[in-house]
Amino acid sequence: MNSFDEKIEKVANDVLVLLMTDKVKDAIQISEQYLEQNISHPYFLFAQTISFLSGNSHQNFHDSFKNLKIIPNITYADFHNFGLFFQRNQAHQLAAECFGESINKKPDFFASYIQLAKIFIALDNFESAINAYIAALEISPEDLESHQNLGLCYEKLLQSELALEIYTKGLVHHPESRTLNIGIARCYLDSGSVQEAYSAFMTSLEDLNSESDQDFLHLLYQERKNLTYRQIVKISRLLGFTKRQILANFLGDIRSFFSSIPIKILSLFSSKKNHPRLKLAANLTILPFVYWEILLHYILTPLKLLPEIEDHLKIPYPVFKGQMAYLLSRPFIGRERALTYRDSAAQALYHMGRINESEKIAQDALKTLPTTDRSDNLSRILLASENCSNEEFCTIIKKNMDALPTVISSPIDNINMQADRVLNVGMLCDFFDGQIAAYTLIPQLKNHDPNKIKVYLYDSGSGKAHDKYPTQAYRYVKKLDDNQLKDLIREDKIDILIEMNGPLRPSNRLGVLKRRAAPIQASWYNLCATTGIKEVDYVITDKISVPAQQQKYFTEKLLFLSGKATGGWELENNAPVTPPPFQKNKFFTFGCFGASFKINPKMISIWSKILHSAPTSKLLIKTDMLDKITSKLLLVQSFAREGISPNRLIFEGLTSYQKMCEKYQDIDLSLDTFPYSNGSTTMNSLWQGVPVLTIAGPAWRSRTTTSIMGSAGFDQFICKDKEEYISRAVEIANAPQQLVGLRQEMRVHLINHSRYFQIEKFAQDFEDGLRDAWHEYISANYKYTPKSRDEANMYE
Asked: What are the residues whose beta carbons fall under 8 Å from the beta carbon of 341, sequence distance 6 or more?
């Protein structure tokens, strides 16, 4: 291959990369330039073929695609890549055709069989998927994924014996596979061989513990098929389960059954505004069940018939328990010690969206015994309160911080004042190994210039993130107190320390900043609120999130990044972008995946007005609190009081990140929350092609989505007040066709127009912002000592 051919091959591969990263227009433009010069390549011709599809020239597309198949130099790999492109864009039939052509050219090409099988599964064509997986296993008999998916296909067709055979063959090559063993357990349960199912299930567990048997009981209940409860009890006893274990599973089923009764009753009422019977029915059916659940917790948890409440902030139980415990224990242990019970009650109310009640309890606790934790707790609550203005928040935060004990630290010595040297930047947080960090911090740090900044990571979380940041200096600091961590940061000679948790997270380390650990200290990432700490020099943000006139509400200076974005993201294609669901549902679906504390009574009232004005629409809410029965019922009751029947509502609790991304396929339009706007939720929604309707409030807390939408040029989804928010939502629901094209083009638009989705450029903006802060520090603190009297006179 000569140098010219090598150049063409490189350009063609670049075109393929552009196609695979949704930069279709760029790929088409480059391809057309070469085709006009009569320089041909399968990837150029494929991009040209795609251009016909983009322009709705379907006949030209099919003619071009047909001609593409017969060009002499096209290979099996080319067809495989074409198939991957169509698969990414949900063109299943075209993808299957391309993978088929790839197999025709190279019958032993394993990857095409696998992708073809996945296409058939997406089309619910399990028979064809089985044939593809069988062919794949003939080529690679040890492939784990093929054994797993082939067995699942047989299960879908109710052929448990064949599924069992496949799973068993897979175990020969992968004896420790949990998925294969659980598949075997399901097949045995389907045939009534419970003892064999139990053995297979227990084999699948890496570590046997006290809950392993209970987990099998759950599987037994889920897969019981034709077994009666009496048969399950008999089988459970034969397997050695205790009465307590069996009863706990029965209680779970009974509680789930009874919790559905109020919802079924309320679903009989139509959604009419101010429907008095609906409100009355909600009070009569839901409240008794909620308090019965609270009583059950008091009785059944000590008996270990209910699990301990790990995330107890999501249910009303700790509110009741916290208030009662405070009143009962106060005469015996004193008010100060009893306040810890009220702290729990305040946090529980906060997570339920009952911000006003939470604020009163937190204020009382802080006045009685000021601590850093109580101050942070109140800050967190006030940020979610619509009644707290910017001025009030800033005043309260400063007052709370001033009330805390004064910390005196020695000054930092021997600071290298060189202006353009490599800066040591410290980042301090507890979520370096979190899901969001994988799409923000990790790609951002990879794009930083090591000749400009060196990053030190101070992990106050799990301590398991070291392998994810191989090029950064990593310190696990959770066990260090504030003074020890301050000393470590000074030993590392950090120039700029960035605290990333912020006052919203209870695990923040603002106490370290209060001790002046670095010459420059800033708050960034998790929220743009003032910390109220005079030792914090900057809040890093952008001019949309925090307009310049808001400076007076910050004790810190505002460090505006030039790219009009507060963060950079590099999201994967976890789930495909699908057409808006209204096309198949025949009704419009609003959605919100925001945190539970943001769904306050006023937000519920606003959403209810939207649902009343768009009477055929529905609202899908997916949030953490909906994992709890009582929280779900209380939310149903809140909407019922606004005249919204449960049959207009769709609820879902926490799931994996993958399933969360896929759930956006069920939403036509996302609704932002107010006064506390969403952040990462908005980013995920946009990436899945779902625009977000928001209200641009005066403070940063209600402008995060405004910043994200404004950066992308989606001003039509930014409303000035609640009235416009309601009318715009109804307008879109009544004319949803405007969302169809936008949804399919969303990812390409974001990458081309929004700094939030341009991680390389954002990393440069971030470096430039830190350099500006450093230069400002030097100009304010650098004192030059003249070398002679004449030089001193010159400066005078």
From this structure: 321, 322, 323, 325, 326, 329
Q: How many CA atoms are closer than 13 Å to the CA of 598, on its beta-carbon side?
A: 22
How far apart are the two ends of the chain, measured CA to CA in Å? 71
Alpha carbon of residue 394 to chain centroid: 29
**Within the chain, how many helices (H) and strands (E) appear?**
35, 13
| Residue count (the chain) | 796
Angle of helix 212-222 relative to helix 243-266, nearest 10 degrees, comes to: 50
H-only helix segments in 465-555 = 482-491, 510-514
Q: What percent of the chain has pLDDT over 90?
A: 33
Neighbour-count burial of 367, counting CB atoms closer than 10 A to its CB (0-12 exposed, 13-18 middle, 19+ buried): exposed
Tell me if residue 93 falls in helix, strand or coil: helix
Decide if 536 contacts 556 (C-beta within 8 A).
Answer: yes
**Dihedral angle over CA of 175, 176, 179, 181, nearest 10:** 60
Helix axis angle, 243-266 relative to 229-238, nearest 10°?
150
| Paired tokens of 446 | 């990879």
Q: How far, in Å, CA of 539 to CA of 548, rounded?
A: 12
- Using the predicted structure, report yes or no on whether residue 142 has a pLDDT greater than 80: yes
φ, ψ for residue 469 (rounded to 5)? -130, 65
Closest-CA residue to 690 (of 590, 764, 604)? 590
**What is the token pair recorded at 631?**
């929280």
**In sequence order, what are the beta bridge partners of 649?**
619
Cα Rg of the chain, angstroms:
30
Res. 209 pLDDT band, cuts 50 70 90:
very low
Reading the block at residue 308, the tokens are 């301990």
pLDDT digits (tens, 9 = 90+) for 158-200: 888 888 888 888 888 887 777 787 788 778 777 767 677 667 6
SS3 733: helix
Three-state DSSP state, 246: helix
Instruction: Kindly tell me if the per-residue pLDDT of 352 is higher than 80.
Output: no
DSSP-derived secondary structure letter, 597: G
Query: CA-CA distance, 180 to 149, in Å (whole number)?
Result: 10
Q: Mean per-residue pLDDT for 73-96?
A: 81
C-alpha of 16 from chain center: 30
Q: What is the largest CA-CA distance in the chain?
A: 103
Q: pTM for this one?
A: 0.68
Token pair listed for 716: 């039509």
**Tokens 């039939």 belong to which residue?**
93
- Using DSSP, state whether 771 is helix, strand or coil: helix
Higher pLDDT, 313 or 71: 71
Angstrom distance (rounded) from CA 635 to CA 624: 12
Output phi, psi for 360, to 5 deg: -60, -45
Residue 794 pLDDT greater than 50, yes or no: no
- What whole-number distance in Å separates Cα of residue 303 and Cα of residue 299? 7
- Per residue in 478-498, pLDDT (tens digit) is 999 999 999 999 999 999 999
Cβ(564)–Cβ(703) under 8 Å? no
Report the C-alpha gap between 609 and 617 in whole angstroms. Answer: 12
Q: What is residue 310's predicted lDDT score, i.e. its pLDDT?
A: 36
CB 590 within 8 A of CB 667: yes
Contact 670, 692 (CB under 8 A): yes
Question: Residue 325 is encoded by which pair of tokens?
Answer: 């415990």
CA–CA distance, 378 with 374 (Å, rounded to integer): 6
Residue 520 β-bridge partners:
496
At 8-25, the pLDDT tens digits run: 777 787 777 777 766 777
